[in-house]
Specification:
The structure is a homodimer of 206-residue chains. Chain A has 206 residues and is mostly helical. The first copy, chain A, folds into two domains: 57 residues, Arc Repressor Mutant, subunit A, CATH 1.10.10; 143 residues, Tetracycline Repressor, domain 2 (Orthogonal Bundle), CATH 1.10.357.10. Helices cover 71% and strands 0% of the residues of chain A. Chain A contains nine helices and no strands. Chain A is elongated, with a radius of gyration of 19 Å. Chains A and B meet through helix 6, helix 7, helix 8 and helix 9 of A and helix 6, helix 7, helix 8 and helix 9 of B. Chain A binds a DNA duplex (30 and 30 nucleotides) through helix 3.
DNA sequence: AGCAAATCAATACACCTGTACGGTAATGTA
DNA sequence: TACATTACCGTACAGGTGTATTGATTTGCT
């Protein structure tokens, strides 16, 4: 193990403190947008001094990158948990994951507002884009896996290409989420559209 | 007609000048993102002085709002032209419009980068959100209309609800566009997924 | 105890931001 | 020609920005 992973001794609280600051940052991004937050705002939100923030992050960009990784990890954790949690059909798992992309409650709404902010920033920040893309790729693979499982279980016909189907589902949910986020359509309608699409995918030809 | 629409006399060039400045703004948003552009940058880009920009826009927010309306209008114009242009099947028209949401060339890419920037900003700027939402609603209505036409022409079965089908197509194209924009998937694959979806919609049951 | 690293705090700096203001020249109207 | 409006330009200002720096204090290992 490297020195960064120790749980006792010097620097033990380091990562925890970074997460705490990142959470303050993410909350402010949700409230005021990514570009409206200053390091001083973050410091105030985390109830630490500006110097403390600077101690834990060498630059603002580094802080942003860490925060993106942090919230991405939260998402993948949720997905992982949803996968390992048995007793659910592939379709239910699939729906649960895709529903995370639609702002149906305050948590999802906040997360998706933050994600949208990072997406926009990624268009002019290659490093950020790399990390964001990695998250997308990971989620895509999970969707492919689930569709394959459903095909193996006979819940989805062997016809459709899992890659294509995953890309379609992913994009559909993402688009629906964006639309709901800006007030174009309700979460209920969005989920209905999503379910309709799942119905078609899971309609095993007689 | 009000005084704002005169084409001769005092203030005739007013709107034209505002558009010119807005175009400089939009170009910079594409290049550096919405929040990275300052009024001085815009002035330099439009090859006018800062005072000139201030003369035509009372504040930065007003300029942003105008620019959003301006680029939205360009989009609706393109849609209108595509609708009035005869000789195309409803499906072809539909595909043409939806393909505008996928960054398949430099123009589309620039427009969608700008749109993404405005979307993110809209999350913390209600006024901007109102205008953005209006554009979304307008495009949605066009899609509904086209699907209805296709149903009337027998190209699409009477089964699916046009509202739902439009919402799905819209969200799918939007999501695909976003994914391509950040480098998650190619425009070719995105269009293939879109066509697949159109195939299903236009598959009249035998 | 001694020492070094980590953890902050406070301050300063150079720069950029949107906006306000005062002035001048051009333009069209009566 | 007189006048009013428009169209700028240049500058100033108050405030915020990320970052660098310096120093004090705490922490934990040996």
């Amino acid at each position: 193990m490297g020195k960064d992973s120790r749980t006792r001794g010097l620097g033990a609280r380091h990562e925890e403190r970074r997460r705490q600051i990142a959470e303050a940052l993410l909350a402010m991004i949700d409230l005021h947008g990514l570009d409206a937050v200053s390091l001083r705002d973050v410091a105030a939100g985390a109830e630490v001094s500006l110097g403390a923030v600077q101690h834990y992050f060498r630059s603002k960009d580094e802080m942003l990158l860490f925060a993106l990784d942090y919230i991405s990890e939260q998402g993948t954790d949720r997905v992982r948990r949803s996968l390992s949690l048995g007793g659910q059909s592939p379709r239910a798992v699939l729906r649960g994951i895709l529903a995370e992309l639609v702002p149906g409650d305050d948590r999802r709404r906040a997360e998706l507002r933050i994600a949208t902010a990072f997406t926009a920033r990624s268009l002019v920040n290659p490093k950020l884009a790399d990390h964001l893309r990695a998250g997308y790729a990971a989620l895509h693979e999970v969707l492919v896996l689930l569709i394959r499982q459903a095909q193996d279980a006979g819940e989805v016909s062997a016809g459709p290409d899992p890659e294509r189907a995953a890309a379609a589902l992913f994009a559909l949910a993402e688009g629906l989420g964006t639309h709901v986020l800006i007030g174009h359509g309700s979460p209920e309608t969005a989920l209905a559209v999503l379910d309709e699409h799942l119905d078609r995918l899971f309609a095993t030809a007689p």
